[in-house]
Amino acid sequence: MSVRKANAFLPPHCSYAKTLAASQKKNMSGQESIRGYLFQSLIAVLKSLNGNWNSICVEPKTDYDKVDIIWTFPDKSLEVSQVKSSINNFSTNDIFKWLQNLTLDYNDAKIYSIYLVGNSSQSTKSLFNSIKDKSETEFPEKFKSLYRIKSKLRVFFEPNNIETLEDALIAGVDKFFFSKDILTDYPTKKLIANGMVNQIIKISTIGKVVHKSEFESHLLDWILYNYSEQITLNKANFQLQFYHNKNFSKAISDIKIADIKSSNLFISKKQKVKELFKEISKYNFKVKTFEKKFDINDLSTFSSIKSSFEYSNEPVIINSYEIKLITKGLKKLLNVEPEKEFFNFGELKETKTMSIGFPLTSNKTTLIGAEIEKEKKNLYQDFYWEINELLDLMDFWKKLSKLSLLPIVITNTGKQHTEEIRVQLSIPENVKVIKSKKIPIPKMFQNIEDLNSDNSFLFNSLKQNQNSVVSEYYPRNIMPQFINFGMFGYERKGQEEDKFRSLLNYYFEYNYYYDKPNQTIIECDFKELNTNETMAFPSYILVKSHTDFTIDYEITCKNEPEKITGTLAYKASS
């Protein structure tokens, strides 16, 4: 009888009709025969449930009838296997003989494997567990031909215990169910595992090679038909919504950033301005600066003098622009108007000298006059910076308040923990999407520094904060760290501006694409999401639009090929 060479990429037709004949041929008792085929089916299911293969054939028709199972792999290579079970110890010579018979029955396989259900000596196990490392002298003389293909040989020792193999099979079923998003209890898994053994026998009688997709489809159809009430299909599922004022919705009206006037930062700055204004207003000098030889409305001469780098012994006069600025600011902040005397410093004069040498320091201003006049001027200088910072903060917030917020959250409505979730939002191109680099920034250094922390009023107002309902986003990036090395004011301001932009980039963790017609695509990745967990987006999405618009979304995740889609609606202010 000639040795048949296998098809290039598929095993031959299968047949299970030879069961009885095979049993008689091998001179086994009926009980031993049934036990052998049970173990064979258990091994076939165990290896097939979660393996990386393309097709399987149980009890294939081969020339020497030595092959029990054939697997075909994605690279078109083959593994041919035989399952042996016995209450006696397996001898070394018998195992070599079975391996040799496999090679004679199928001479072009990538792997020749023997599954031994029973007992073996420790020396036998040691030999075959490391057979690829053995020398030619360790192969018996009549099996020397196996030495050349020792890297293809595999021997697996399984316990001669049905319960143990069933436990392993249940664990395999559990892993298979996880990959297919199926949930059920342990007793049902046990019933299904035992039923699968019968299914593998039925599949082997089809008379053709069974591909993995067909194998899994057949098992799933059988499971869903017989256990529909005991299992739950756990396909990934998500929902996007707006979350604002403790309410979820699919549509939302125009939302603006929180009012800066409610922040501790604003309140403390305003209180400081109020206190300084009250303190300065107590001063009353008989000699009035603005009544002497300088006209407050015509300061061209004085301005030209003060515009130089240095000047000496000049009267302290507040120019008309500054007076108007402060008067307007006080009206807006405190609803008060300063008296004319508020800007009077009596006969106080000042001298300004420019610093030279290294290291450079700020230009020095020296006040010349009565102590009470100096006191007022120093208080006024503090007041001037405080009110300007406050007005700058209000102006900065006014720009932010022109933008609309999209407070979007995502909820895992599936039945299990899910990882690697990607959300794509499609926003009409006529809606202006504000990226982090386009967000305005305060002009004054102190305001930038005051806002430059992850728990500042600004950054708390640009994102959804965690509560009992919504989790905060888990950033992929590390919070930026900064050490201020600036020696001079302008250097420190530059560093604070860089920090400000870095914090914005940290929170606005989105990718933007413009490759779809008439759409702006905003993409966000979520590392993981527990079942029934709701998580906020990294930050509110900032937009500017005078018309209503809709947002289409697509969600994909690990192990779920199907996209989940939906729509959100936003109503612009009238």
Could you explain the architecture of this structure?
The chain contains 14 helices and 24 strands. It has helices at about 20-25, 30-50, 90-105, 120-130, 160-180, 185-205, 210-225, 265-280, 300-305, 320-335, 370-400, 445-450, 455-460, 490-505, and strands at about 55-60, 70, 80-90, 110-120, 155-160, 180-185, 210, 230-235, 240-245, 245-250, 250-255, 310-315, 350-355, 365-370, 405, 410, 420-430, 430-435, 510-515, 520-530, 535, 540-545, 550-555, 560-570. It is of the alpha+beta class and about 575 residues long. The relative contact order is 0.09. Strands 5-4-3-2-1-7 form a 6-stranded mixed beta sheet, with helices on both faces. It has a 6-stranded mixed beta sheet with strand order 11-24-23-17-20-19, with no helix packed on it. The longest helix has 30 residues, at about 370-400. Helix 2 packs parallel to helix 5 (about 160-180), helix 2 crosses helix 6 and helix 12 runs parallel beside helix 14 (about 490-505).
Task: Write out key terms for the chains shown.
single chain; 574 residues; alpha+beta; six-stranded mixed β-sheet; 14 helices; 24% strand; disordered N terminus
Strand proportion: 15-25%
The gyration radius over C-alpha positions equals: 41 Å
Q: How far apart are the first and last residues' alpha carbons, in Å?
A: 90 Å
The shape is elongated
Biggest sheet features: 6 strands, mixed
Write down how many β-strands occur, each being a DSSP E stretch of 2 or more residues: 24
Task: Give the rounded overall mean pLDDT.
Answer: 84
Contiguous low-pLDDT stretches (5 residues minimum) are 1-28, 292-296, 299-308
Class based on secondary structure composition and strand pairing: alpha+beta
Number of contiguous helices: 14
**Strand arrangement across the biggest beta sheet:** 5-4-3-2-1-7
Helix content: 25-40%
